[in-house]
Amino acid sequence: MPRTNAHHKCREARRQVLIPCRVKSQRGWGDACIHNISSRGMMIACDDALVPGEYVDLRRGRQVVIGRVIWRRDRFSGIRTQDLISADVLVNEPRLEGRPVQQAGDEDRRDPRQRMNSEIEAARRMERSRAISSAMQFGALGLFGLVAAVTIALQVGHVLAAPAQQITQALATQAK
To answer: What are phi and psi of 57, to 5 degrees?
Structure first.
C-alpha cells in the first residue's frame, strides 16, 4: 500500500485527448487545443499566453466550460474548472457548422478567413506529423527486422558449420 503524505492529496487520473476548442480570455477569443481532462480541470495549449489567475471560457460546439488558469508553462496552461466536466461529452460534441450567436460586445478578434487558414494550417501540420511518425515507425520496424534477420542468419551459420565440417571430413576420408 503506497504511503501518502497528509499534505498531498491523490492526483485524479487524467484522460489524454486532443480536442480543438475556442478560448476567451482577457485578450479576446483564440484557438486552443485540450490535451488532457479530469473531472475538475484540463491542460490546454494555445498561442495566446494565459495568465495564472485569469478566468477563461472554453467552447467546444455548444459546450461551455468556465475555469481559472492555475499554471502556465510556454504554450500550455492548467485550467481548474468551475463545475464538474465530462471528457466524454467534450470528445463527442460535434464542432458547430456556423459561428455561435454572439451577444452584444462579444466580438471575435480575427476574421473568418484568418481562423479558417489557421485551422487548415493546423490540420496540415497534424497530417505532416502523422506521416513523419508513420515513416519513422516503418523505418524502425524495418531496421529491427533487418538486424533480427542478420542475427538469425549468423546463428544458423554457426550451428550448421560444425556438422558441415564433419560431413566434409567424412567424405574426404572415404575418397582416399
So the answer is: -110, 125
Closest CA to 70 of 32, 34, 28, 42: 42
What average pLDDT does range 166-174 have in this prediction? 88
CA distances from 23 to 2, 70, 76, 107 (A): 38, 15, 13, 13
Alpha helices in 12-111 (DSSP H): 87-92
Q: What stretches of the chain show up as alpha helix (H) in DSSP?
A: 87-92, 112-175
pLDDT for residue 8 is more than 70: no
Give the span between the Cα atoms of 87 and 141, in whole angstroms. 34
pLDDT of residue 37: 93
Query: pLDDT of 53-70, one tens digit each?
Result: 999 999 988 889 999 999
Interacting residues of 110 by C-beta distance below 8 A, sequence separation 6+: 29, 30, 118
Our measurement of the distance from residue 111's CA atom to the centroid of its chain's CA atoms, rounded to an integer in Å, reads 28
Q: Indicate if the pLDDT at residue 95 is higher than 70.
A: no
- pLDDT bucket at 146, cuts 50 / 70 / 90: very high
CA gap 34, 16 in Å, rounded: 9
Which of 58, 64, 66, 48 has the alpha carbon at shortest distance from 23? Answer: 58
- Which of 65, 59, 61, 70 shows the shortest CA–CA distance to 83? 65
CA–CA separation, 65 and 82 (whole Å): 8
